[in-house]
Amino acid sequence: MLKYPHNPIITPGMITPSAAGLEVKGALNPGVTIFENEIVLLLRVAEAGICDSGAVRVPRYAFNDNNTKGTLDVLSFNRNDAALTLKDNRAVIYKGKEYVSTLSHLRLARSTDGIHFNIDTHPFRVPGHPSEEYGVEDARITKIDNEYYINYTAVSKDSYGTALIKTTDFQTVRYLGMPFCVPNKDVCIFPERINGKYYALHRPYNHDFGKSSIWIASSYDLIHWGDHQCLIRPGANEWEEEKIGGGAPPIKTSKGWLEIYHGKSIKNGADYYSLLMLLLDLDDPRRVVYRGEVPVLHPSEPYETHGFVPNVVFLNGMVLRNASELLLYYSACDETTCLATCALDELLRLAP
Q: Whole-prediction pTM value?
């Protein structure tokens, strides 16, 4: 896997804040597709309230009594209040209630060369439902026929789940609800029916037995999912011993459905995220054809090892260009968007 020498390709400083009083902290985890001969990214833009020495400010969306319209609300806490706890750079706890320190929305970016992107100055998707009051994050895009299905993580005081919208033009969208019960995320929808069914990878949160693993489910309509099965669990290696989760929607290849997933481990007492390779049977994606034991991508460059959350590479989207070149648009340190490329045949040769 070849990392673009001028990474990162998108940084927070390239993004226009969505409202006064906010600053962009992250431009990360984009969903990816090709639309009208352009590569389209659907970035997660994470914004924080502008803080000062006396106040900590946390943005969220507030909803009216009918839950029909959300409005931006920035909470302000006295930095010296004994009831305030700064859990880490991602969370704030006040009087026992936890808030996400940044509020995320989805933002479109377009490119003809796959490297230089024109980024919209306004959001594509902001929280539109009470289940999204703490933000919408980490989009994944799957084209099925002539429609683009976009699933993303919806965050609220009731935990996190996966919401689904669809579009044909990336201008108007239809909200389809929350197909997977909370807490669940990392949903990757396959781009076609397989023996009459749709399939998706997902990752329920496991806090009682075992560790968080990648599951697979099937559906006849993309809304109602069943036949849930655990597909793979964290491997006994140094790259994914803590938990795993789906990355980009799978791509169909001659050797099987190609999935690049993320693994979390602990190195030197801190989280460490890498990307690993998985091949699933073309006719029955519940069957694993090949699973790599070493990463195809891991943090090694300064922009991947030092940042908002150090030692993280994370993937939500990849595309195949000219049927031969794989483009991975991954995020580094939960802060920036980067590019890595690889010849598809070269990657598939890793599998016997």
A: 0.96
